[in-house]
Every structure is written in C-alpha cells, then in structure tokens.
Amino acid sequence: MLVWxxxxxxxxxxxxxxxxxxxxxxxxxxILLSSLAxxxxxxxxxxxxxxxxxxxxxxxxWKAVKASLVTGFLAGAVALVSGTWAALALRxxxxxxxxxxxxxxxxxxxxxxxxxxxxxxxxxxxxxxxLNGTIAIVMAAHFVLISAFTFGNVSAGxxxxxxxxEQVASSLGxxxxxxxxHVTLPLLAPYLVAAFGLSFALSMGELGATVxxxxxxxVTLPVSIFSLTDRGDVFAGAALTMVLVAVTLILLLGLxxxxxxxxxx
Amino acid sequence: MAxxxxxxxxxxxxxxxxxxxxxxxxxxxxxxxxPLVLIVQQAFMDDSGMANVGEFVRVLHxxxxxNALINTITISVAATAGCLIVGLVLGLILAFVxxxxxxxxxxxxxxxxxxxxxxxxxxxxxxxxxxxxxxxGLMEAFSLQAPPVNFLYSTWGVVLAEVTVxxxxxxxxxxxxxxxxxxxxxxxxxxxGARPFRIVRQVILPAAVPALIAxxxxxxxxxxxxxxxxxxxxxxxxxxxxxxxxxxxxxxxAYQVACIIAVINIALSLGLFGxxxxxxxxxxx
Lengths: 265, 285
Hints:
The complex is a heterodimer. Chain A is mainly α.
C-alpha cells in the first residue's frame, strides 16, 4: 500500500472513479441507452423502446451480422493456420533469418488499414487476379490485418513452451509429424484459441480496409453502422453497435471458457 | 508469384524442413507485400508508365496534404501524451492503492482493446455532440440558445476519443511492470518517512520507464493509423492522412494521389513501428 492515510486513499479512489466513468463507463452506458431510446431531445431520452433492435434485426442488419461472422471466422481461420505454420516453421530457420522473417510477418500490423485496402484495390482490380468486387477481397484484407496478431500470439506461446516435452518425445523416437500432432499442438492449444479470439474480435471491428474494398452485397457490421449514422439514423446505429459488442464479447467469453477448461484438465 | 521468390531463404543443407516457411511467406507476399510494391510504383509513375516524381512533389506541397499531415501528427502526439498520463494515473492506483473490485475493473478496461474504436466516437456524439446530453443539460440549466460545448467536432474531440480507446494499451504493459516492483522497497521507503510522491518518482517510475516507452510508441503508431474515430466524427476541419487516402481513392477516384499519400503514411508508420520494436526489445531485455 503506497498511501496509508484514509482520506488520501479516498481522494485517489475518487480520481480513479471519475476517470473511469468519464472515459470507459459513460461511453458504453450511453450507447446502450441510446440503442433503447425512444426520442432524445433533452438530457435523458423521453422513453425507452426496443424498436431499434427489431428494426435492425428485420432490416439489412441480419445480413451484416452474417457477413461479419463469416468474414471473421474464415479470415481468422486462415490467419490461424498461416500464423501457426509460420511460427512453427521459423523455429527451424537459423537465428538471423528467423529474426528478419519474424519482423516481416509483423509488418502488416504497422501499416494503416486504409493503405492495406488501397493496395488490394490496386493489385487485384485487373485479370488474371480479379478479386475486386468479390467477397474474397474482403477476406484478403481482413486476413492481412489480423495475420500479424495471430503470428505474434502463437510465437509468444511457442516461446513459453517448455522444450522438455518435445525433447522427450523426440528421444523416445517420435517422428516430427507425430510430435507436432500429439505434443506441440496440444500444448499450444490455449494460445491458438486466444490468438483466434483476438483475430476474430479485430475482424469484427475492422473498418478502414473494409470500407475501401467491400462489394455491394457484402456489407459488414462496422460498414453498415457507419452508413446508418452517416444518414443520421444514430439510434439504429447504436443498436447495431450493441449487437456487434454483444457478439464479440459472447465469442471471446466462450473461447475463454474453452481455454480455461483445457488448462484445468 | 514472382514476388514470393524474394522471401525464401538462401539454401543450407543441415536442417531438414527449412522450406516449410515458404507457404505462409508466399501467401503474405502475394496479399500484402506485392500490393505494397504496387502502391509505391503507382506513386512514382505517370499514366504512360514512365518514372515521374512531378506528381509526388506536387502532392507534397499541396495545402490539403500538409494540413492532413499536421493534423495527424498533432492528434497522434496529443493523444499519446493523454494515454500516458491516464494510463499512469489509472495504473498507479490499480497497482498500489487497490480497492475492492480493482481486479475486475482492470480486466474490464482491458476488454476495451477488443472493442471497435468507432464505438467511442458514436458514444461521444450522444454525450458531447451539439444535441448531446451535456449540451442539452447546460442549455436547459442556463436557458442558452446555442450549444455551449463544441470541442467534439475539433481536433480535441478526436484526441479525447483516442485517449479512451488507446490508454488500455499503455495500462497493460504498465501493470505488468508494476507487478514486478518490490513491495518491500516501497514499504521500507514509506516507513523511513518518504512521501508517496517521492516514492513514485524515485522507486516506481524508474521501473516503469521501459513500459511507458513501449506503450507510448505503440500509441503513436496506432493513433497515426487510426481511421474509424476520425471518419465517425466526420468534422470537415479534421482530416488525417488515412482519411485523406480514403477520400481521394473512393470519393474522388484519384488513385495516384491516394498512393502518394499512402507511401508517406506507410513510411511514417514503419518508422514508428521501428521505434516500438526497439522499445519493446529493450523492455524484454
């Protein structure tokens, strides 16, 4: 305990409560409130309604939820396979090369998402690789943007694995493929789940690259939230934002329970 | 793809399976590095395919570009400073003056990392917008005709939104660093009569410097690249580099200008990424 006097501690806690409520609690609370607001002309809404949610579910929103979920799962799965593959393959390169390639795999996380979208438009708008206007270009953009995070998470997990298990397996005569399937990957599983959860959450909230490349029939949640609020339909936008937050948090909590169970068993 | 051939390693025979790195590297080369090369190529070439830096120089001197560059840097530096201050204050209280439930609160702030950034902007329009709660309250209380609080549609609105979104990125490494500070040392110092402020300055802060540098440089990088917050605020006067790339490419179909701005934005980001890697490397050492 740094501060011993009770008044001193209470002052600090009040400072914390103020910062926390202004910066974190108020935004979440107000989004929730506005998604339920009937009319809002004063300090507080005049009444509450679930109308925005039913509008959103009946309208194009359901398609947006589907587009976001499919994009998140597919891009996340490809990023997980490619990131795990890269992290495992880097372990058998020599040290200098592994370091250089490691940085290359991280670079997509440093490039602005809008530029990633722009690059895909420039590169894939002509045959033979015509992706512009297809769903594939959205997947590609999401994959590029989340790949560095999956790679980073899996690499961090690999670095933390005790080498003993793998050495024991090898010395008992396990071939590399058997060792990978029955020793390394199971040990790595919690990190793989965490990496997938993070990349899924990132994909669900991705806006910059998607807004550059999305085809008319594949409007993700963030893009449709933007077009709703841009049209002035802020309450529907807030309702759809709550849907996005709920879907993301439910999935993250679900994945956390899966990892928790694995860790205990 | 021709570009994929650049990445694979020089060949050495001693380790089997070195080529396993090729598939993921080739995928990234095709979908990321190849488009990146094309952006650079488009930035320095005219329509006939000849190298031409004239357009590049013209954009570099254009008013709209310089404004966006200045806005981007101002917002990024101000937001990072804000994140460091907020992160430090929250972190110090969470780590050294804990209260019942502070663990839960710390995890709650951490989940903000997983939420979309534009959520905060949308919330801010309800809170501080011209028809938001704060303005409505003030106008009612003092019978004002016009909304008195207008900061949301300026640079400061973007800065406040970015502080909210990115201070968890400072808080996370900071709490990790604080957990390593020797509690005995703090208690000894305070028993010997050192005041809390002095303990923070002389014992806690030195231990937190690497975390502050790593978190701060990550914030610089993320705020330079931030797009959703600026797009959602939609203020005419607040245009940043990513927003300029979007409006040039999508709204004006001026792809070459978009590529030129993207080259500069990417160069800026990669510089900050280098700074972050350097800082994070020192943190690990």
